Amino acid sequence: MAIYRFSAQVIGRSSGRSAVAAAAYRAGERLRDERIGQTWNYERKLGVVHKEILAPEGAPEWVFERSKLWNAVEKRELRRDSSLSREIQIALPSELTHEQQVELVREFVREQFVSHGMVADVCVHRAEPSNPHVHVMLTMRSLEPDGFGNKERSWRDRKLLFGWRSSWSEYANRALERAGHEERIDHRSYADRNIALEPQPKLGRQVAQAPGDSRFMMEERLEEYRRVVFENGERIREQPEIALRLLTQQRATFRREDLLKVLNTHTLNAEQFDACLAAVMASPALVKLGPDAKGTERFSSREMLDKEETLLELGELLSISGEHRVAEAFTAQAMATHPTLSSEQRQALTHLTSGSDSVALLEGHAGTGKSFLLGAAREAWQAHGYLVVGGALAGK
To answer: What is the pLDDT of residues 276-326, one digit of tens each?
Structure first.
């Protein structure tokens, strides 16, 4: 199932690292670090299913050659403790096809990194079918025709990193929606989402393969993982609404299959899984909605239904509180200011601004120009003298 993982690190000399070596490993290639005269060969590395370099428009040809790119980075850095590259590692939704994953990565990297002037070395890994992920190595200096210029301090702003983290969930969720999948991811922590669970440690293949002295440390990690998962399972058994909140924060309804996936992730063994499933199915917080159009049984939570009923009540109150009709001249002015509005967008604009009710609804698929249309509607409302306040559940 789709999971959220977005981590960032700086590859630097202070920890004895080489940008050329890092790039060779992630791309599964043989590269020579000209600065120290050492060759790094990872051609036998498995699981590299896609790799490419994305750069700003007009970038010189040499940046698209991995060896030249990262040797240029190494050549420009003179200090023994220099920061060489920022690396972003992101989990990709396993529900998407390989082509859809690559297109999602390209869209995100181009708009979030390359558009700011960074060069991005992108490598998609899939050594395990259930763990597709991408490594993105980013340059940290301004790009010039013959090399790199000054360090861009703004690229190291932590606020920028927080923005990338939240933006990734929006990009991934749009891709999942376009592909017809119900799964969604959320960049927020359990605490921020009001979910009473402890974050579960991530376990990699190295836990089972760790040799020698590191085996003890891996066993400790495994033991901590088991503890957290068991305690989370007990919390769900005692408070089934926790699992329901996990399921409904990104969607209003869910299938039994979705519930099983959540419980499988947050229980330690079959006995605990069965106990949690029985507790959730018997909980008064669970609402059985019956079969959908495809005959699949759907569920929701009492909390979600209460929120929907509250929205309906507020809508009814607004419908009798007075209208927000806009004079036709102001709507026409907004259309004239935005001549690229399509015929359908113009009809929608008229619907939003000329109706007699206080509530007007607009529905549209992702990428169809809803935000552009609402910008025109805002101008019409403001021209008429209304105060416009925008809000969103997610996004910009």
So the answer is: 999 999 999 999 999 999 999 999 999 999 999 998 898 888 777 667 788
Backbone angles phi, psi at 360, to 5 degrees: -130, 135
Which residues are within 8 A (CB) of 63 and not within 5 positions of it... i.e. 6 or more apart?
53, 55, 69, 72, 119, 143
Q: How far is the C-alpha of 109 from the C-alpha of 341, rounded, in Å? A: 29
pLDDT tens-digit profile of 368-381?
Answer: 888 899 999 999 99
Q: Give per-residue pLDDT as tens, 233-276.
A: 999 999 999 999 999 987 889 999 999 999 999 999 999 999 99
Helix (H) or strand (E) holding 51: strand 48-54
What global pTM score does this model have?
Answer: 0.72
Closest CA to 258 of 238, 233, 280: 280
Q: What number of CA atoms fall less than 13 Å from residue 19's CA on the CB side? A: 30
Cβ atoms of 251 and 183 closer than 8 Å = no
CA distance 283 to 263: 15
Q: 5 is written with which tokens?
A: 């993982």
What is the spatial distance between Cα 348 and Cα 360, in angstroms, rounded to a whole number? 10
- The dihedral sign for the CA sequence 94, 100, 102, 108: negative
Cα–Cα distances in angstroms (integers) from residue 366 to residues 171, 185, 240, 370, in the given order: 11, 17, 33, 8
